[in-house]
Design a protein that fits this description.
Length: 365
């Protein structure tokens, strides 16, 4: 039975690594060190029931190794759920490189990292994540073919991600407002970077009234002018009069403070881990009558795009698959309402159910 216990921070036990792996039910961790290049990395394979574990590599200046370990465990588990609920034949994995992405990058470091990815023999497929550029991945690719998202291949996943978010948002509108038209709806988009800007373009085309915030004034000005969006302050994005809140910048923006401010009927955005604590805030949004569209399902367009590259499928296939997020959202909302259970729990259960079911199909005859 596929089962993941609740993730909670615990004190270090006598055997902290295995203990943590068992808590998250991880299959494998690979700790990588190379004194010559300065590479310090952890590769995590969470679950490969559905297929090879796919998830990006993050380079981050972690305060300590435990922080890096917790991050890679949490992120790789998230990939298992995202890939499963999206109907992909992929498991969940992730890698973290411990270091300063502005100072410690080199061809040698990434090629050494590539050798570690290769050593897993295809059980883990990597891609770009925070702190990693296409050039870095080109170096990784010199040592392993288990890389996706390379320049000239499937390309920037953001348009596919934004399209999936837009589709899920429309499905939520259908349930909440009785129509999936966003014409005239007030949508607050926090962060107009890669995904946020594409989302704003879909919304503007449909006649939504769009409010935007970002820490970069120049980006804000350009996006506001191009799509006729209204600029609001960084904190005002939570209090502006809105129907839909679309977090497309940071995680944990649905928290104790903002839940007292957000006057919306739907939360649907691209950011990962939007609920500061899903067990707490997932219940509160439900009690308030707000529809929260689970982020890991809604923002799966990026990994769908990677999957297309792995399987040699077309860009059209990826967009079609992202469009299915509309129906998946309807299913989740329907189950949430009929079973009276918060949406995040339904999405987790759906991901686990598929892994259980396919795990049985794959048992030897
Ligand atoms: P990005 O870095 O291009 O854009 C993020 C934007 O948010 C930037 O413009 C940044 O200036 C802005 N920002 C940062 N702090 C802010 C704040 N406090 N208030 C308002 N704006 C702020 O990233 P992206 O690729 O567009 O991804 C957006 C989110 O979606 C991230 O959380 C990412 O993890 C998630 N996501 C992205 C993809 C993808 O395909 N790119 C896929 C899945 C999930």
């Amino acid at each position: 039975m596929f089962e993941v216990k609740e993730i909670r921070e615990t004190a270090l036990g006598e055997n902290p690594v295995i203990e943590r792996m068992s808590k998250y039910n991880h299959e494998q961790l690979l700790f990588c060190n190379d004194n010559e290049t300065g590479l310090k990395a952890i590769l995590a394979v969470h679950n490969t029931t559905l297929g090879p574990a796919l998830g990006g590599t993050r380079m981050w200046n972690y305060n300590n190794e435990l922080e890096a370990l917790n991050d890679v465990l949490r992120l790789s588990r998230g990939m298992t759920y995202k890939n499963s609920i999206s109907g992909l034949n992929l498991g969940g994995g992730k890698a973290v490189i411990i270091g300063d992405a502005r100072k410690q990058k080199s061809e040698a470091l990434f090629r050494r990292f590539g050798k570690f990815v290769e050593s897993l023999g295809g059980k883990y497929i990597t891609a770009e994540d925070v702190g990693i550029s296409p050039q870095d991945m080109t170096w990784v690719n010199m040592e392993t073919n288990h890389v996706v998202g390379l320049p000239g291949k499937s390309g920037d996943p953001s348009p596919v991600t934004a399209y999936g978010v837009y589709m899920g948002m429309k499905a939520a509108a259908k349930v909440q407002f009785g129509t999936d038209s966003l014409n005239g709806k007030k949508v607050a988009v926090q962060g107009v970077g890669h995904v946020g800007e594409y989302l704003v373009s879909h919304l503007a085309k449909e006649g939504a009234q769009v409010y935007i915030s970002d820490i970069h004034e120049d980006t804000l000005k350009r996006v506001a002018e191009q799509y006729g969006a209204t600029v609001v302050g960084l904190d005002d994005i939570y209090t502006v009069d809105m129907d839909i809140y679309a977090p497309c910048a940071l995680g944990a923006t649905v928290n104790d403070t903002t839940l007292g401010q957000l006057n919306c009927s739907i939360i649907a955005g691209a950011a990962n881990n939007q609920l500061a604590d899903e067990t707490v805030h997932g219940e509160i949004v439900k009690d308030k009558g707000i529809i929260y569209v689970p982020d890991f399902m809604l923002n799966a367009g990026g990994v769908i795009n990677c999957y297309a590259e792995v399987k040699g499928l077309s860009a059209e296939w990826a967009m079609g698959k992202a469009e299915e997020i509309y129906n998946t959202t309807l299913n989740i909302l329907d189950r949430s309402s009929s079973e009276n259970i918060p949406t995040y729990k339904i999405a987790n259960a759906m991901a686990e159910e598929r892994i259980d079911a396919i795990g049985k199909v794959k048992l030897p005859m």
